[in-house]
Amino acid sequence: MDLLKRAREFVANNTVADCYKCRVHLTPETGWLNDPNGYSFYNGKYHMFYQFYPYATHWGMMHWGHATSSDCIKWEYAPVALAPKYPFAIGKACYSGSAIEHNGAHYLMFTQNGIGQRQCLAYSTDGVDYTRIMKPVIAEKDLPADVSIGNFRDPKVYKRGSKFYVLIGGRQKGNVKFGNILLFSSDDLYSWKYIGKLFEKSFCIKHFEDMAECPDFFTIGGKDVIVVSPWRKQKVLYSVGSLDYETGKFASGDVELLDYGTDFFATQSTTIASGDVVLSAWAQGTVSAENPMVKHGWNGLLTLPRKVTLKDNKIYQMPIEALKNYRKNCEKFQGELVASREMSTHGDVLDIELKFNRIKDGDGIVLYADNEGNGLKVYYEKGFVKIDRTLNYRTSVASAAEYILSAPVDTNNGALNIRIVLDKFIIEVFANEGQRAFSTLVAHTPERTKVVLVTASKTECEAELYNIN
Ligand code: FRU
C-alpha cells in the first residue's frame, strides 16, 4: 500500500476549514501535529515540515506534513512530504529531522523509526515531491558501543565551511539511563563519520534523565548555542558556549529555560533572509477531549517564529518583524490608569504592546474578559511576569501549578514592556524585549472577547492594541 498517496488523498478530503484554526500560527491541515521539522529556505520559499498523523487528533504513525511561506507567518499547505512504509511491522515511520540544500536539491534528514532508529535522507528538486532513500545513512555500525540504537533520533543537519555536520539525540545503554547529543561530519550528506558526544556523563544525568530530544543548534556573534528538549520534562533548555569540531565536546555555559509557558517543546531554528536566527516550537496541547482544538478535528500547533538574539550570553526572543504586517485597527492609550479600563479593541486574535514606566504589582491586562472584566490575565507581581489562566482554561489533566505561570523579569528602574500575541487557542507573551517568553494554550472563548487594562492601584501606562488579519 502506498501510504503517501493514501495520506495525501485523506488530507485533501478532510481539510479543516480555516475559521476553526489559528490565524498566524501553523496548525495541521487536519489531525495531529507535533514537532516542527525541516525549517529551511529552498526555491524562493520558506519550508516548514511537521510531525504529522492525519488520521486522528492523537499521535500515530509519523508522516511529515509540509507548508511553505514567503514570510514565515502565513503558510500555505503543500502535499504531505513523507509517509511511513508499509508493512507497519517494521515501522519505518518518519520521525523528526531537519533540511538542507545541497547541489541544488532540497534534502530532508530524518529518523526512520522501526526496530531501532536510523537516520535517513529524502530529496527533492521541486520542493513538493520528496524521494525517500530507504538505506539509512547513519545506523548501528556508526554508533559508539554504549549508545542505544533504540533511542537515536532527531538529526539537526547544518553546513560549516565546506563540511556538513549533524547533531543527533541519543541515549546511553545500561542501568542508569541518560541522554546525550552526538556529533557527526560528512562531505556529501551520504557518508558520515562519528566525532563525539557533546556532554560529560554528570552533565547529562543532571539535565537529561532520559533522551535528549530534538537537538537544535545555531551560532550568533561567534557563539554556539545548543537548544534541547529533554524527553518527559516537556520543557526546552539552552546553553551558550562553544562546540569543538575535533572532539565534539561542547563547552557549556549556564543551562537556561527557553520558555516559561506550558506548551513549548522540540524547537527548530533556521536563518531567514534578514540574517536573523528564528526558531519555532511545538505547542503540544493535551490529548484530552477537553482540549479546545480537538473538537474542530485538529491538535497541536507551531509557535510564532521568534527572532533570537543574545545579550550577556542569554537568549532574548521576540516575534519576527513580519508579524506586524498583519496588524490592523490600531488603538492607543497613554496616561494614568485607575483600577481598570475596558478598551474598544476586542477579539480572539490580537497583538498588544504594553509599556509601564514604573510598573506596580497587579498592573497588566485581561483578555477574553467577561462583563465583569474577568478572564485571562497577564500581569506583573513582585519581580515576575505572570499569566493567570484560572478563569480561562480548565482541564481535568492540568495541575493547579499550570494555571498561574510565572517568569522572573528584570525591570529598568521599574520600566517594563510586555508584548502579547493572542491567536484563539494560544497566547504568547514576551516581556522586557524578549528576556522572558511564554507559550501556553488557552481556552478559545469567542463569546467573551473583551480587553481590559488593569491595575491594583493607579499606574502610568502606554498601550497599543491591534487586531491581526
Ligand atoms: C519529540 C519526539 C521526537 C521524535 C518525534 C516523534 O516530540 O518524541 O524525539 O522524533 O517526537 O513524533
Task: Output the keywords.
469 residues, ten-stranded antiparallel beta sheet
Would you kindly provide a written description of the structure presented here, covering whatever features stand out?
With 469 residues, the chain is mainly beta. It is globular. The relative contact order is 0.12. The model has no long low-confidence stretch (mean pLDDT 94). The chain has helices at residues 3-14, 201-207, and strands at 31-42, 45-53, 63-69, 76-82, 93-102, 105-114, 116-124, 131-138, 147-160, 163-172, 179-186, 192-197, 212-220, 223-230, 237-243, 250-252, 256-257, 265-271, 277-283, 298-299, 301-302, 306-311, 314-319, 327-342, 349-356, 364-369, 376-381, 384-388, 404-408, 416-423, 426-431, 436-441, 450-468. 4% of the residues lie in helices and 54% in strands. It binds beta-D-fructofuranose (FRU). Beta-D-fructofuranose binds next to strand 1, strand 5, strand 9, strand 13 and strand 18.
Briefly characterize the structure:
Helices cover 4% and strands 54% of the residues.
